[in-house]
Amino acid sequence: DLQICQHRAPTCCTKKMEESYQAAVRRERTQSIQALNFELKYMIVGHITAFQEAFESLLRFAENRTSSLFETAYRPMAKEAAEPVKELFTDISLYILGAETTVESAVLRFFDSLFPLVYSRLINPGITDLSEDYTECLRLTRQDINPFGHYSKNMVTELSKSLWASRMLSQALSLGIEVINTTEHAALTKECSRALVRMQYCPHCQGLTLIRPCVGYCLNVMRGCLASVAELDVHWREYISTLEYLANEMAASHDLETALSGMWSSINEAILHAQLNGPQLSATVDKVCGQPRQQEGNLSAAHVVPVKEVAAVQTFVMAHASLNNKRREFINYMKRSRTFYASVAERLCDGDLVMRDSSTCWNGEDVV
Prior knowledge:
By secondary structure, the protein is mainly alpha-helical. It has one domain. It has 15 helices and no strands. The longest helix has 59 residues, at 15-73. The two termini are 26 Å apart. The relative contact order is 0.16. The model is unreliable at 296-312 (pLDDT under 50). It comes from Sakesphorus luctuosus. Cell surface proteoglycan.
């Protein structure tokens, strides 16, 4: 009653043993593909972590630099500006990780929150009544009167370019892991599991426990079983090319490090622009939002304090170098894996599975 290992000679197998063999080949095939995938998956997962750590390091540096700008140059509003600054960098971090948000909405939300503070602490430092309604009116007015000039739009443009490539690379790496995981758990067809039993275990039914499959026979069986996996080859090659393109974009015109390290300077220029145009802004705001309660006495507007470029700190230099090195190392490794899905059958038939240096092997029917 054997279904797979049918042979003219007497046999030491039963139908139940054949079923056990089918379960064994399914398990072995999954394990062997997992072993092949392990290095590739390990490399991608390692780089997802490394990239994210480098991104976070750069973001923390840029956030600290922006916070210190307020603490040194704009002390009257430093405490209240802390929350909008934190929100801005949280939004940027979420965007890089693939959240449904945009750089433009994050930056403009920041400037919306910043304008009431700049207006009431720097342009008109005598304002005492900053009610919710008045603050909201100032936030909405910011969109119409554009107190920060072209600086807010420039910041959106600069950051959008550099963060886009980082976001895409982050998503592409996660997609790579998904693809690898899917191939590990691709179901074996009935024909494939029978072919694998015939190749690996039918000799056992003849008492030939040491004989192994012929190389050509193994390749034919594995290529048939892995036809759907081999179809990924052309797409995997395209995927590697895309990773290379994104890494080059990150390193070239879309340089993330430069954009993040320059954020404090853009915010400083925007605030200076608003202060220099203080009288015109006050006249417009008074018409739209009304005049708030002022403190008695003649309080002059806070002095415009231009901030000099501070030397980049060691942590930033290290994070910058680390990100560049990781990017290069990762792309070089991935380029070597271009043919990964085209050569799965060859790699599975390598090593202990087949007979290489012997004159006899199993061809599916007999010893040859």
